[in-house]
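haha ok so turns out i had the wrong file open the whole time. this is the CORRECT one, sorry everyone. sequence first:
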Amino acid sequence: MTAQKGSAFLLKIGDGAQPPAYQTVAGLRTTQMSVNGDTVVITHKESGGWRELLSGAGTRSVSVAASGIFLGSSAEAAIRAHALAGTIDDYELSFEDGEKLRGRFLVQRLDYAGDFNGERNYTLQLESSGAVLPA
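then structure:
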């Protein structure tokens, strides 16, 4: 496996159509993805003192965090609209090697900040709703 550029890790938002077309969220400086899972413990008397887990069970989720410079793009406006409305939309994560993950996400958090004479920046947190699968 070769090293990949962080700048090629992109967050894209769907246009609301079915199937959705995806637009890159502009101005991102950092992007992070976490895959989370809860376990189902099935340890019993015959486990020999070792914990046993049930494969494929439990709850899985994907969290995406990103931050960047606000450029006023239509993708940023769509994210803001979803944050204010509490609605879920289609998102795509794409990587330098061509791999893509798609799923539906809720904007969990959207923060704006800016200095006098400086650019306005934002951070956002997305939480998956349903399966996140390779595209």
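The longest strand covers residues 100-114.
again sry for the mixup
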